[in-house]
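Quick one:
INPUT:
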């Protein structure tokens, strides 16, 4: 039976809502919906590209905490408040995943957790040794 590893990023929301930033079970890794919030609770970036890039960097750090890398990502789900602004999100996505090519979904939602948030991203990864 695979051991479960929960990793917290230390934000207050994890305790309030009851979730982990990252969960690894065996060779599978799941990173929860991530926004462009820095360690001090400030929103980083005022456009979709800047927020997406910051989020993907944050996700990359989270993957590393459980021994995974971006090359292990198999699914990306991106939530945006304005699908017409998809190009900024897509540009950041391509910078991180151009050669990896995970399955990806972009969904427009009516709102995220606060007004300054334009993007939220979650990923699933499978750690593999075939590279």
């Amino acid at each position: 039976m695979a051991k479960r590893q929960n990793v917290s990023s230390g934000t207050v929301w994890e305790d309030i809502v009851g979730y982990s930033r990252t969960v690894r079970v065996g060779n599978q890794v799941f990173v929860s919906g991530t926004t462009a919030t820095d360690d001090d609770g400030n929103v980083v970036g005022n456009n979709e590209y800047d927020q997406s890039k910051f989020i993907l960097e944050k996700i990359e750090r989270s993957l590393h905490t459980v021994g995974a890398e971006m090359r292990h990502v198999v699914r990306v789900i991106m939530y945006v408040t304005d699908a017409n602004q998809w190009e900024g999100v897509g540009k950041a996505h391509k910078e991180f995943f151009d050669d990896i090519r995970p399955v990806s979904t972009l969904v427009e939602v009516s709102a995220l957790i606060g007004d300054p948030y334009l993007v939220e991203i979650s990923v699933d990864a499978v750690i593999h040794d075939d590279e």
